[in-house]
Amino acid sequence: MLQRIYGTAWENEEQLMAYLHFKEEAKRRDHRRIGQDLDLFSIQDEAGGGLVFWHPKGAIVRHIIEDTWKKIHINRGYDMLYTPHVAKADLWKISGHLDFYKENMFDQMDIEDEQYQLRPMNCPYHILVYKRKLHSYRDFPIRVAELGTVYRYELSGSLHGLFRVRGFTQDDAHIFCLEDQIKDEIRGVLDLTEEILLQFGFSRYEVNLSTRPEKAVGDDEIWEKATCALKDALDDKGWSYQVDEGGGAFYGPKIDLKIEDALGRKWQCSTIQVDFNLPQRFDITYVDADQERKRPIMIHRAVLGSLERFFGVLIEHYAGDFPLWLSPVQLEYCNNVARELKRNGIRAEVWHGERLPKLIRNAEKQKTPLMAVVGAKEVEMQTVTVRSRFSGELGTLEVDSFISRIKDACENRTSL
Questions:
Q1: Is 246 left (phi over 0), alpha (psi -120 to 50) or beta?
Q2: 8 A C-beta contact, residue 329 and residue 376
Q3: Which of 51, 191, 229, 394 is the most buried (most CB within 10 A)?
Q4: 80 SS3 class
Q5: What is the phi/psi pair of residue 32, to 5°?
Q6: NCBIfam families of this UniProt entry (predicted)?
Q7: What is the pLDDT confidence band of residue 330, given thresholds at 50, 70 and 90?
Q8: What percent of the chain shows pLDDT beyond 90?
Q9: Residue 353 falls in which region: left (phi positive, over 0), alpha (psi -120 to 50) or beta
Q10: pLDDT, position 222
C-alpha cells in the first residue's frame, strides 16, 4: 500500500516560524468558519453542493458590494442589464460553448420539444441586446454591465466554500467599440478597476498581459493593434506587469489582475479580454462613415469576478472584522449605544451611510468632541473605539466605561 507524505524544508527557524504563523493565521481567517460564526452564508446538503445561501447579514454586505459596483459603473457610462438565466441550446451552439465548454455546462432541459440550458456565461445575452438594432459608428463606445448569475458544473471534490461553487454571480460587462478606441477603453477599465478595488481595501496587485497563442482567430494586424493597445494602457497607468507570451485566449489578448490580501496571498479577480471571436460568430456589425458594414471590437471585462468568491476573499482579508461601512450589523448596535448614552443624559447622534474617513471628517467639521467608532469587532466585543477631537485616539472601551468617563469629564468640566 502506498502512502503519500507531504513535508516542507526551511533554511532557518525564523522562516519556519513565519510559515507556521502564516498557516495558523490562514486557518483563523478561513471564510467557511467565519461565515458560520457570523451567520453570513451557508451551503446546504438538501439543496446541493456548490449552491450558496446568503443569510440576512451576508445579504446586507452583498447589497453594499452591488450598490457600490453599480454606482461606479453608472458614473463611468455603463448601462445596466438584466438577462435570463437559461437559453435555447442553439444559442450556446452559435457561441461555441457546446463545442468547447460543454463539460462545464449542466445538462440540457427539454421544454416543449426544445432544448434549453442554464447559462455558464453572460456574453451571448449581451450580444443579443446589441443586435436588437443597427448601430452607427457614432454610437461607440457602447458599454453594458450586469451582475449576472451563471451556472457551471464542477466536480463535487473540487467544491470549496465560496471559492469554488456551481452557481455564482459575475460582475460582467462588455464594451463594443472601434479599433482606434481600444486603448482608451482599456485605460478606462483599468481606472474603474482600481477605483472599485480601493473601495474594498485592496491596493496591491499582480498584473499579467497575455499575448497571441499559436492557434488563434483574427488576423495578425488586429492582434498586434489590440496587444499594443493593452500594453500602452498599462504603461499609461504606470502599473508594472509581466508579459505571458502566447498565453492569451484563442480569441484575443487579455489582462489578468490578482489582488493581494492581508496575508500576502494572490487572488485572481479582475480580467480584461479583447474578443475577435464572438463578434464573428454572431455576425455583429455597425455602419461606418462610408455607409459600409463593419465589425466592432468586443471587450469582455470583470472586476470582482464572482461575487461569492470576492466575498470569501473579503472575509479572509478582514478576518470577518469588516470596516464600518461594510459591517452588516453596525446600525442596530450603534442605535443601542446611542440610546444608552441618551438615557444617561449624554447628547448623541448616529451617523452612517458613508465610509469611515468621511464620517470622521464630517464630525470634525461639526466640532463634535467625541466620536465612538463601531465596526464588526466592536459589535462582537460589545465595545466602542473612541476618538477625541482634542486628544485623538483613546482606544477601545466598554460602553459603561465610556459613559462613566464622559460623565466624569462633564462633571469636572474637562475633556477626554
A1: left
A2: yes
A3: 229
A4: strand
A5: -70, -40
A6: thrS
A7: low
A8: 61
A9: left
A10: 83
Residue 285 · residue 295 · CB < 8 Å: yes
Q: How far is the C-alpha of 376 from the C-alpha of 347, rounded, in Å?
A: 24
What's domain 13-83+122-318's superfamily in CATH? Bira Bifunctional Protein; Domain 2 (3.30.930.10)
Residue 95 backbone zone (phi > 0: left; psi -120 to 50: alpha; other: beta): alpha
Q: Which residues contact residue 132 at a Cβ distance below 8 angstroms, ignoring those fewer than 6 apart?
A: none
Separation in Å, CA 251 to CA 106, 277, 296, 315, 389: 24, 5, 14, 35, 57
pLDDT tens sequence across 130-146: 999 999 999 999 999 99
Cross-strand partners of 190: none
Cell digits of residue 181: 478606441
Q: How confident is the model at residue 331, as a pLDDT?
A: 66
Secondary element (H or E) of residue 364: helix 356-365
Distance CA 342, CA 348 (A): 7
Cell numbers for 241, please give them.
506587469
Domain ranges of the chain: 13-83+122-318, 324-411
Distance CA 161, CA 405 (A): 44
- ∠262-265-271 over CA atoms, to 5°? 110
Nine cell digits for residue 414: 474637562
The cell for 162 is 465560496
Residue for cell digits 481595501?
201
For the chain, the average pLDDT equals 90
Characterize the bridge pairing of strands 286-287 and 242-244.
Answer: unpaired
Sheet containing 383-388, strands listed edge to edge, beginning at the edge strand earlier in sequence:
370-373, 383-388, 392-398
SS3 content of the chain, % helix, strand, coil (to 5): 40, 25, 35
A 10 A CB-CB count for 182 gives: 24
**What Å distances lie between residue 378 and 299, 326, 337, 363, CA to CA?**
43, 13, 11, 20
Q: Which three cell numbers stand for residue 317?
A: 482579508
**Contact criterion met (CB below 8 Å) for 125 and 148:** yes
> Residue 221's pLDDT band (boundaries 50, 70, 90)?
confident
Q: Assign residue 131 a region: left if phi > 0, alpha if psi is -120 to 50, beta otherwise? A: alpha
CATH 3.40.50.720 fits 324-411, yes or no: no
